[in-house]
Design a protein that fits this description.
By secondary structure, this protein is α+β, with helices and mostly antiparallel strands. It folds into two domains: 6-17 and 173-282, no CATH class; 35-168, OB fold (Dihydrolipoamide Acetyltransferase, E2P), CATH 2.40.50. The chain is built from four helices and twelve strands. It has helices spanning 49-58, 155-168, 242-250, 265-282, and strands spanning 6-7, 14-15, 61-72, 85-99, 107-115, 128-135, 142-144, 150-152, 177-187, 194-202, 208-214, 221-225. The strands form three sheets. Strands 3, 4, 5, 6, 7 and 8 form a six-stranded antiparallel beta sheet that branches. Helix 1 crosses helix 2. The protein is elongated.
Length: 293
């Protein structure tokens, strides 16, 4: 790890800076009873940016599909499921590919797990969804990323999916956060003044640092720098952007003890306080996952 000692760039401190897949495996589709084919309404609730980013980053393919048939498999066809859960076999028409690593058939099939209370009346026929996963070994097979990777389609959900995909394709996309390497705190010349800097570990080794500057009678100034040199003009990233997602959903709940090992007690307490304030400024990461079954 490179030396993180302070430099003279600041009067305070300026250092240099995945769900198990569901596979389709030769399961024959049988006709549903007429009562079970009646479509129920699924409210197309809008997803949060964080939840959509989770789905998109884990899914090489995103398809808009309309369910044509759904059948609950007998328990012996899914012996790995816990009590109260049922595996469903779905056939759906592909209405369009929003993201894809290849081509897919006009009609696809996939598996999804859900509550056994829905086994007699799944109620999804005729409804439109966004399916997140990957194309199977055959073009008519689709492998969902997880059983919560089928979400009701709506203009808002499709627009958000497209936005996240576009964000992921930018050349300067920030890497995923994998941990905190070190933290430093330097008190200022007067009471109430000080600066904390926190250096992050990333998936590709790119440097990212957080900075919190405090001055008397002022609100703390938060900034994020994507590089070796701290950017004095940087601020907290705008919510619902890829950098915000990486930080809000990737930072640990608290600073690891090892990152504070070189600090005295008072400086470590200040660093912890500033880190918690930074995470509060980012806002919560709402990545709640729900199932349609």
């Amino acid at each position: 790890m490179p030396d993180r000692t302070p430099s003279r760039r600041s009067p305070l401190l300026r250092p240099v800076m995945a769900s198990a897949a569901l596979f389709l495996s030769g399961i024959a589709c049988v006709s549903l009873p007429a009562a079970a084919q009646e479509a129920a309404t699924v409210a197309p609730a809008g997803l949060s940016y964080a939840r959509m980013a989770d789905l998109v980053t884990q899914s090489p393919a995103v398809a808009k599909v309309e369910v044509r048939s759904i059948v609950a498999l007998k328990p012996e066809r899914a012996p790995d499921l816990p009590p109260g859960r049922t595996r469903f076999f779905i056939e759906a028409d592909t209405l369009g590919l929003i993201r894809s690593e290849g081509v897919t058939a006009r009609r696809i099939s996939f598996l999804i797990d859900g509550s056994s209370t829905n086994a007699r009346r799944p109620g999804l026929k005729g409804q439109i969804f966004l399916a997140f996963g990957r194309i199977g070994s055959q073009v008519n097979e689709f492998q969902l990323t997880s059983s919560t990777a089928l979400i009701p389609w709506s203009p808002a959900n499709e627009a958000l999916a497209r936005k996240v995909i576009a964000d992921l394709m930018t050349p300067d996309i920030p890497p995923a956060i994998t941990g905190v390497t070190s933290a430093f705190h330097v008190p200022g010349a007067i009471l109430g003044e000080g600066e904390t800097q926190i250096f992050l570990q990333t998936a590709d080794g790119s440097p990212i640092s957080l900075s919190v500057i405090r001055r008397p009678q002022e609100q703390p100034h938060f900034s994020v720098s994507l590089g070796e040199i701290v950017d004095e003009a940087a601020t907290v990233p705008e919510r619902d952007t890829m950098l915000w997602y990486r930080l809000a959903c990737g930072l640990p709940d608290q600073l690891p003890a090892l990152s504070l090992s070189e600090l005295g007690r008072a400086d470590a307490e200040s660093a912890n306080r500033d880190y918690n304030a930074f995470r509060e400024a980012l806002g919560p990461c709402d990545r709640t996952a729900t199932s349609v079954l």
